[in-house]
């Protein structure tokens, strides 16, 4: 019996519609007659009605509102601190997420492409893929194809990624956060397979749903490689490495930052060795999260357009993904119904409130 099995009888999804409709009709609140609106006063009585006015003029009220807004913003700054602008500030603030490095990440990937073009392939168009806030939307091409194949094997289930290709800036931050933020295992900058675009981190539920599919496509689970496939005692459960093909780009990731820094700071150059060292670490701490104003050393507009999306395009992609996910779920429901097999209903759907809204939400979130 799998983890989602329930001791309660399982019903086909279509059998629940009469129950939902009945519950919706029976559970509706009775319509109460509202009191008639008060009639306006007429004649001499209206002339003697007292007129209420505010103790402050509109201008005074607006000024007070502005002062209150400024006080609130000031209080929020005291709680959250000043805006985070550099990698070093993000390290010190210890937010436990590297999502703020995204603009810098894109510049670093573009600089890698300037040095050795053609390695990366976007994955943001995979219909059932859910990229976490710190996951960059591309991998090295063979790994991207393997991830796509694994996701396509279960189109009705969401494949979540917490991390994908990772910049040397992200690796630098995570290394500094080791021992906090739940980080127990992290490679030194310049040595992680994430920096080659050949590794992904997935949450536990995704591992359970996609482990076999990922393994068939060439992804090696960390717990298989280091702990005999056991989750107990496995130090990095989310981690998968793609082993079938691909190139080692880890030193190229470091070299890209060194070139990017020297392009932006010709007065403070560092050695372009591809090795992560103290000089590189110090410059990484000074690197702006929004990226360098000078940009990469080559025209990267086409590359950036290919591997990233504008907010409008991202919203459209998410809408398309949602449509594809619903479509795949309906196809699977029809297949199960045709085979006269009941659609699995999570145990939480049976134990939870029987309101129509709750049932609908749980059924379509399966």
Task: Chart the SSEs and their pairings.
Elements: H1 17-26, H2 44-48, H3 58-80, H4 87-93, H5 102-115, E1 120-122, E2 129-131, E3 138-140, H6 141-152, E4 159-161, H7 168-176, E5 199-201, H8 204-216, E6 219-221, H9 222-227, E7 239-242, H10 250-264, H11 278-286, H12 301-307, H13 311-338, H14 347-351, H15 356-364
Parallel strand pairs: 2-4
Antiparallel strand pairs: 1-3, 5-7, 6-7
Helix pairs in contact: 4-7, 5-10, 6-8
Question: Could you explain how this protein is built, in words?
Answer:
The chain is mainly alpha-helical and 366 residues long. The chain has two domains: 87-308, Muramoyl-pentapeptide Carboxypeptidase, domain 2, CATH 3.30.1380; 315-364. It has helices at residues 17-26, 44-48, 58-80, 87-93, 102-115, 141-152, 168-176, 204-216, 222-227, 250-264, 278-286, 301-307, 311-338, 347-351, 356-364; strands spanning 120-122, 129-131, 138-140, 159-161, 199-201, 219-221, 239-242. The strands form three sheets. A three-stranded antiparallel sheet has the order 5-7-6. The protein has a two-stranded antiparallel ribbon with strand order 1-3. The protein has a two-stranded parallel ribbon with strand order 2-4. Helix 4 runs parallel beside helix 7 (168-176), helix 5 (102-115) crosses helix 10 (250-264) and helix 6 crosses helix 8. The relative contact order is 0.14. Mean pLDDT is 79; it is low at 1-36, 40-53 and 345-366.
């Amino acid at each position: 019996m799998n983890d989602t099995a329930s001791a309660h009888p399982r019903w086909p999804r279509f059998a629940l519609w009469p129950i939902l409709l009945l519950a919706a009709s029976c559970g509706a609140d009775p319509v109460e007659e509202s009191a008639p609106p008060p009639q306006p006063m007429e004649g001499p009585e209206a002339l003697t009605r007292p007129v209420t006015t505010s103790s402050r003029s509109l201008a005074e009220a607006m000024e007070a509102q502005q002062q209150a807004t400024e006080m609130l913003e000031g209080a929020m700054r005291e709680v959250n601190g000043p805006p985070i602008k550099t990698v070093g500030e993000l390290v010190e603030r210890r937010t436990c997420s590297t999502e703020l490095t995204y603009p810098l990440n894109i510049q670093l990937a573009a600089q890698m492409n300037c040095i050795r073009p053609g390695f990366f392939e976007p994955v943001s168009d995979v219909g059932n893929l859910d990229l976490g806030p710190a996951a960059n939307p591309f991998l090295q091409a063979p790994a991207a194809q393997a991830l796509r194949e694994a996701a396509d094997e279960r189109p009705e289930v969401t494949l979540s990624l917490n991390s994908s290709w990772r910049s040397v800036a992200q690796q630098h931050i995570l290394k500094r956060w080791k021992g906090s933020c739940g980080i127990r295992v992290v490679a030194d900058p310049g040595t992680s397979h994430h920096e080659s675009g050949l590794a992904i981190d997935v949450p536990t539920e995704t591992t359970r749903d996609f482990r076999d599919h990922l393994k068939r496509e060439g992804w090696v689970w960390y717990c298989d490689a280091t702990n005999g496939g056991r989750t107990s005692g496995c130090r990095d459960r989310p981690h998968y490495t793609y082993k079938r093909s691909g190139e080692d780009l880890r030193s190229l990731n470091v070299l890209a930052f060194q070139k990017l820094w020297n392009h932006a700071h010709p007065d403070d150059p560092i050695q372009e060795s591809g090795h992560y060292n103290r000089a590189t670490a110090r410059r990484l701490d000074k690197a702006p999260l929004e990226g360098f104003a000078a940009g990469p050393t080559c025209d990267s507009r086409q590359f950036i357009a290919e591997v990233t999306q504008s907010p409008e395009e991202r919203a459209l992609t998410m809408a398309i993904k949602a449509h594809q996910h619903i479509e795949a779920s309906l196809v699977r429901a029809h297949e199960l119904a045709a085979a006269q097999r009941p659609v699995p209903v999570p145990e939480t759907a049976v134990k939870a409130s029987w309101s129509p809204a709750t049932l609908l939400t749980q059924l379509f979130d399966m």
